Amino acid sequence: MTLRLSTLLAIAYALGFVLFAVFLGKPAGAEKTEAVVVLTGGKGRLERGMEVLKRGDAKRLLVSGADPSVTRADLARRLGPGTLATLRCCVDLGSEAVDTRSNAEESRRWMARRGYKSLRLVTSDWHMRRAAYEFRSDLPKTRIIEDAVPSRPSLFTLFAEYNKYLLRRAALWLDM
């Protein structure tokens, strides 16, 4: 009985991993939201958030988890000419978050201060499932559009993220 149960759990875990790896987050269309939240740490995330803002699909952008020493001028140098004005008018740098869970908490406080009820979440495709889960848990009444930045994650990255996702779901299920 124990062997059968262990085998069933191992098969379910492996199948879950395969599905997780095959069905990564996708980029969103041009749907409008009040805010864009970009989670730091991945290539192309900030550029995607700025693209959404410049297109007029959101009013304001939060860069959640930014290093406290990073300035708008630093971001303008990275993003290229013509971005400093947009960064000054419409971008907030949040430096309170240190992980995905605190990204959601920081974003909730920022959204509440501004009175926003909808956001576009921008992060890497491999990170989107866990990030969206955290955000939906922390902002249950907020309309969240998932906007994943395509990447080429390694097998190790996918494996680590899958395990983090499972552990976080279990922790929330156990109310931890």
TrEMBL record:
Every copy of the DUF218 domain together lies at: 34-138
Supply the InterPro entries for this chain. Cell_Envelope_Assoc, DUF218, Rossmann-like_a/b/a_fold
One protein family per Pfam: DUF218
PANTHER family the UniProt entry points to: ENVELOPE BIOGENESIS FACTOR ELYC (PTHR30336:SF4), INNER MEMBRANE PROTEIN, PROBABLE PERMEASE (PTHR30336)
Q: Would you tell me the protein name for this molecule?
A: YdcF family protein
Q: Which organism is it from?
A: Sphingomonas humi
